């Protein structure tokens, strides 16, 4: 009887190489998407922080507008910065040495608006 000797089959590298390339591509794609998601989340957090700061500034500015429109603020500015007085009031201002100016009374017939 004669024995048949079988030679080992040649292993083909192509299927294993293709599977490895596909795995590397999928891993790269996943890493790329994960990085993009991370960067997007960082940007979203920065926008949310900016939004919170803008909302806080908006609230502060609205409060300032209310204060500027109040009667007490308008009266204070009229008295302190514009030198206006109500009818019948007399202005008494402390004089600083070297900064005294002569008082010029209003012209006759000049009326102050309330």
Automatic annotation (TrEMBL):
One of its GO terms (biological process) is FtsZ-dependent cytokinesis. InterPro entries: Cell_div_FtsB (IPR023081), FtsL/DivIC (IPR007060). The keyword Cell cycle applies. Pfam families: DivIC. Residues 37-71 form a coiled coil. Residues 95-114 are annotated as: Disordered. Keywords: Cell cycle, Cell division, Cell membrane, Coiled coil, Membrane, Transmembrane, Transmembrane helix. The gene is ftsL_2. The keyword tRNA-binding does not apply. It comes from Neomoorella thermoacetica (Clostridium thermoaceticum). This is Cell division protein FtsL. GO terms for cellular component: cell septum.
